[in-house]
Design brief:
Layout (H helix, E strand, L loop, with lengths): L1 H39 L17 H5 L9 H4 L2 H9 L25 H11 L18 H10 L7 E4 L2 E4 L9 H4 L2 H9 L19 H12 L2
Antiparallel strand pairs: 1-2
Length: 224
């Protein structure tokens, strides 16, 4: 009887290990498959995946055709990214790196399988400057005051104001941004933007806002 129980336990352990190995192998295959799709579709022609960004001047930045993705896994929420790759609606009203041309909205679409695999790959690309678990999304009153009054972020970014979308067009839209971006990335970008995007139009807030204010803004924006 004891031998039977031992055999049963060993059998359970064996199949658990096999099943775990299969899952791990499948996950690795999805990541590898996603990278192959990324390369086959020549996404690297527009997006940087090996960071950090080494741009020194605006001339360097203007050569880029799309946003960096070398920190995609720290920036985006996986569920949103899978959906967006299948139905890529413009996030910026203006074309990337332009304040004059409208965004043509011509980003290529992926199938569900392609989007899932590419997302698995992109989520492996992370930045050490983004610390997980730092920010929780909430309607932070200090963050709201800084966002709307002290810094006037609506001047560049559109968002919901009541039942209407209002704000500027030169920056990325913040409508439903809480579904798109991780709060920890928002905070890291506000705190040390040069570590993520060294050349940018967005103001630098270090020395303008204190750490508590930046965390409040990140929490507030993540709640959109």
């Amino acid at each position: 009887m004891k031998r039977i129980k031992v055999y049963q336990k060993l059998t359970v352990v064996f199949f658990s290990m096999v099943f775990t190995g299969i899952l791990a192998g499948t996950a690795n295959a999805d990541v590898a498959g996603g990278q192959k799709i990324f390369e086959a579709k020549e996404c690297g022609a527009c997006h940087l995946t090996k960071g950090p960004n080494q741009d020194k001047t605006f001339e360097d930045k203007l050569k880029r055709k799309g946003p960096d993705l070398w920190f995609a896994g720290s920036k985006f929420k996986k569920e949103w990214l899978v959906k967006w790759l299948q139905d890529p609606k413009p996030i910026r009203q203006m074309a990337y790196n332009s304040i004059e041309k409208k965004n043509p909205g011509d980003h290529s679409k992926l199938s569900g399988k392609e989007a899932g695999d590419m997302t698995d790959y992109l989520m492996t690309l992370t930045s050490k400057d983004v610390v997980a678990g730092t920010i929780k999304a909430k309607k932070d009153l200090m963050g709201k005051m800084v966002f709307e009054k002290k810094q006037g972020c609506y001047g560049c970014h559109s968002s919901m104001r009541g039942a209407k979308v209002a704000g500027g067009l030169t920056g990325p839209s913040l409508v439903d941004v809480g579904k798109r971006l991780q709060g920890d990335w928002i905070y890291a970008y506000l705190k040390n933007p040069q570590a993520i995007i060294p050349v940018k139009r967005m103001p630098t807030y270090a020395g303008v806002l204190n750490d508590s204010e930046m965390k409040s803004v990140a929490s507030y924006v993540a709640s959109f």
